[in-house]
Amino acid sequence: MSRSLKKGHYIDPKLLKKLQRTKPGMGVIKTWSRRSTISPEMVGFMFGVHNGKDFISVQVSEDMVGHKLGEFSPTRKFTRHGGKMQRELEQQATEKAKTEKPAQ
Asked: Starting from the edge strand earliest in sequence, which strands make up the sheet with 55-59, in order?
């Protein structure tokens, strides 16, 4: 269910204060507020969004307006399926790529 239009988008008040104090391109703004909605005022800023372990750098562009900051900072690391057989296939692929590069 979407948020009511009369309430407006949620942006953490502390994050708004940090935005007003800094200029675009000045550095990374660290935030733990993954639930904050990206507004047009945030375009051009670089955010360090916490993923539970460390901060992931997110450069905000116009396409991101309306999304949440947390959408661009994944919290889970994908581990590939397969074991020994998968590693052998990957190794063969890297060797093949190395042999093709000098031929160009």
From this structure: 28-31, 46-50, 55-59
pTM summary value: 0.70
CATH of residue 5: 3.30.860.10
Per residue of the chain (104 residues), give pLDDT as tens: 778 888 888 999 999 999 999 887 788 999 999 999 999 999 999 999 999 999 999 999 999 999 999 999 999 987 767 678 888 888 888 888 888 765 44
Cα of first residue to Cα of last residue in the chain, in angstroms, is 54
Range of the domain at 28: 1-75
